[in-house]
Amino acid sequence: MTGTGTTVLAAQAHGFLSPTGVEVVFLLVGLVTLGAAVVTVTTKQLVHAALWLVVALGGLAVEYLLLTAEFIAWVQVLIYVGSVVVLLLFGLMLTKAPIGRSPDADSGNRWAALGVAVAAAAALVWVVADAFRTTWIGLDGDAPQGTTKVSGEILFRHWVLPFEALSVLLLAALVGAIVLSRKRGKEEKR
Amino acid sequence: MHLVYPAVLAALLFCTGLYGVLARRNAILVLMSVELMLNAVNLNLVAFDVWLRDELHAGQALTLFTIAIAAAEIGIGLAIVLQVHRNRGTADVDRLRDLRDDAPDAGSDTERADREEKAEAAA
């Protein structure tokens, strides 16, 4: 109870018109991230979409760093920027995606999609801003929140079983991807 | 930091991904938009974890799990897309309409309502 009380008091002490340095950096990086995401979903050049996705995901890694979740940020850089985007680029190459502008990158229902997205954005932003406008995150606490030490301790002390189940899931996904993409030579010969 | 900033950024990123999923024609671009939506959820998880100062850090653990599951999903998804492309010669989701109801005007209204009821019962 006292914790929430102090949070509310702190939020009242911190107005929106006098942002801290972290908030300014967060806003600027957030604008870059959002812009890159919008370009990713609207550009006509398929390979450029994957490259703008790198910018968006890297911006999100910086946001994690600003939120003191250090380990998550580096995992984001390693897995998303390092492997997922490379996989997507390989997929684009293997499906013979056209280099250059492809006029049919968007389907015919893009205006309906735009309507749905704008309506969802308006509703979500309204609700979220109304619910959390006085909530303050104290980032400069005494206990570190997201260093590698803390993350490793909680992961291997409290979340061991889900972690191991996740490794089994990854193995299953790996085997499944191999089985799916293998050429079925034997069955065609028969 | 105000919690509003990460929450609003996550909502906007999610809606950007939503637009991409609905509007894109190439299946790989749809997968990219799905990644954007997953990342928006991750940002929310991290922000709320830092705000609540959870003892177990459930938000950060769940974020790591989401990242791993997203990696698995992208691998399987790309394998399926490649297989579809190998079989059909296209990866456009608009052209994959084998399951489409081909003749929407064929049956009368009662028949269609009957069919929909059956589909709902089966679901």
From TrEMBL, chain B:
Reactions accelerated catalytically: a quinone + NADH + 5 H(+)(in) = a quinol + NAD(+) + 4 H(+)(out)
Membrane topology label: Multi-pass membrane protein
Gene Ontology CC entries for this record: NADH dehydrogenase complex; plasma membrane
Gene Ontology terms, MF aspect: NADH dehydrogenase (quinone) (non-electrogenic) activity; quinone binding
GO biological process terms, semicolon-separated: ATP synthesis coupled electron transport
UniProt source species: Streptomyces klenkii
Subunit structure: NDH-1 is composed of 14 different subunits. Subunits NuoA, H, J, K, L, M, N constitute the membrane sector of the complex.
Protein name, per record: NADH-quinone oxidoreductase subunit K
